[in-house]
Amino acid sequence: VLVGLRCLAKGAFFSEVADTHGVSRSSVCRIIHGFVDAVINNVDNIKFPVQRDDQMSVKRGFYRKCKFPNIVGAVDGTLVPILAPTANEESFVCRKGFHAINCQAVASSDLRFIDIVAKWPGSSHDAGVFDNSVLKDYLEADLEAVLLGDSGYPLRRYLITPILHPSNERCLHRSGGVLPFSPGKSCRVFLACCKLHNLCIDNNMPLPDAIVCADDQGIQQNQEATRPGLTTRAQYIQLP
């Protein structure tokens, strides 16, 4: 457990982790994947609120902080750098020019992850990842749940995007090397880290200071909007 946590928390070389814990490098390599599998298979704490009571609780949290009604979460994609894969290498080159996986996350007002999609190559657009998610199908059927997204997403009744182009906060874009795994294993590492993050919140552990990286000027603006989306956004703009 200590070896697995140190690998995920520090992003250190396997040899460094091995020296710290007095084990071999091959043991670290074996342990990290076993640890990630154990977290994914045994920790079930990433759940989108579909029950009415759960959804109302999440909405109240957003309203207390932002005065926005009916918001259940904020959605965004993050590019997680990885080593160049041997198969379909070109599809993993993101818009910033490095190999990555594009992971979509939805967070509630208390910084808890409530939905994760980690399976798409870096060349995938955020809007494309969202359009192909189960979450989009659910939101289309739910007449009250609304997400907040940046201007890379299409404006919808259930997905409110800004009129202006705000600066974004990202913490994984080329900030700490790359994940030295295959795309599939990198996606599982990302999911395990999200579950561990929620586990820290459940146990009232203090969160580290946020890392602000204003390096997202290359975001692909999405101009697609529906009439219900425009109407809903206009209603939010008029809120006192």
UniProtKB/TrEMBL annotation:
UniProt keyword annotations, A-Z: Cytoplasm, Hydrolase, Metal-binding, Nuclease, Nucleus
Superkingdom assignment: Eukaryota
Required cofactor(s): a divalent metal cation
Pfam families named among the record's database cross-references: DDE_Tnp_4 (PF13359)
Localization: Cytoplasm; Nucleus
Keyword DNA-binding found: no
Domain DDE Tnp4 intervals: 75-165
PANTHER family (alphabetical): NUCLEASE HARBI1-RELATED, PTHR22930
Family designation: Belongs to the HARBI1 family.
Known function: Transposase-derived protein that may have nuclease activity. Does not have transposase activity.
Record's protein name: Putative nuclease HARBI1
Organism the protein comes from: Mya arenaria (Soft-shell clam)
